[in-house]
Amino acid sequence: MRIPEARGPFSSGLFSLLVGMPGADAAAEADLYDRVAGRMPGAARVAGIGDVLDEDVQLTLFCLYELHYGGLEGVDDSWEWNPRLIGIRNLLEKPFEQWLRSEAGELIAAVERPGSGVPDSDGTAALLFGLAARDGGPSLSRHVAKKATEGQLREFVIHKSLYQLKEADPHTWAIPRLTGRAKAALVEIQADEYGGGNPERMHSALFAQTMRGLGLDDSYGAYIDGMPAVSLASVNAMSLFGLNRRLRGAIAGHLAMYEMTSSRPNQLYGNGFRRLGFGEDVTRYFDEHVEADAVHEQIAGRDLAGGLVEAEPDLLEDVLFGAAAVACLDALFARHVLDAWQDGRSSLRVPVPAAV
């Protein structure tokens, strides 16, 4: 992905560093660290949503994570494990995680927990299905199915491209951190996500086909400058959970909730595109997920999340946290998009001509 346009002092400082070599300007590295530490000294700094869903904060965190994925154009690979950048990432992660836990806490508390003690795998799945059933956010999928204009459909796809073009990768970080039943379940799910050995059937490839069918650029990160903080935050949460071993329970819960709440919305998304006359080249991605996720939700709920809790009972709360974080972020994203559309404006930071 190309280096995006900076959105403030954090991202500007980071991008200035990344065009050089690690260690070439140690003073600038230290200055950026001190600047971040001074504004966000640990979790205590965050007072509300404005601090965490800041455009500069989320873009900086996203690009720091991107160094662990496909990297950034023109940036030396040795930046990936630069101690100063890892430290800056940690400074940004702490308040982000605290905010996510605060947002998820109310939803978790509302779920009824029958009996006492740690549930078995079926009991864990039941808790996750209970969380999924309580999701009360605005329905973006119903709007797409019934009302969205062609331009709004393109905007929706642009928002989703930030994850869907690397679909499954954040959750794959968890494979070497799990064992036994949970590990086998995750590998089974991920094998489907990656096309079962057929690169043309990879879900990321199917989504790229959808973008091409809509006349959009399918190169990864092509629309990064238009992505608002709320879109970046959804992807950053996956990377936060996937890249930190201590949060392996959260990434398992995240994937379980993702699969449990995916089948019906994808059916509605596909219907929205069909309503406006788009063919199978555009709808194949969504139609694929209707069937696949109906199977995956059972594997993810019982074998992945449930199997992990049976093996490591202390991870139950993190499993629930990861699941609830999905619902909270999805609700924020849907509200952002629908509010913009209802006001007759673009939901992107920078309107894209192809989406008008």
Number of domains: 2
By CATH reckoning, the class of the largest domain would read: Mainly Alpha
Provide the CATH topology of the largest domain.
Answer: Heme Oxygenase, Chain A
Round the mean pLDDT to the nearest integer and report it: 93
CATH architecture of the largest domain: Up-down Bundle
**Global outline:** globular
- Class derived from helix and strand content: mainly alpha
Distance between the termini: 24 Å
Report helical residue fraction. 55-70%
CATH superfamily of the largest domain: Heme oxygenase-like
User: Which consecutive residue ranges, at least 5 long each, have pLDDT under 50?
Assistant: 41-49
Question: How many β-strands, per DSSP?
Answer: 0
Radius of gyration: 20 Å
Number of helices: 16
The ordered H/E elements are HHHHHHHHHHHHHHHH
Described by strand count, sense and barrel closure, the largest sheet is: none
Strand content: under 5%
What's the structural blueprint in terms of helices and strands?
Layout: H1 9-18, H2 26-39, H3 49-52, H4 55-66, H5 83-109, H6 121-133, H7 140-146, H8 150-164, H9 169-172, H10 180-193, H11 203-213, H12 229-243, H13 248-260, H14 263-275, H15 280-311, H16 316-342
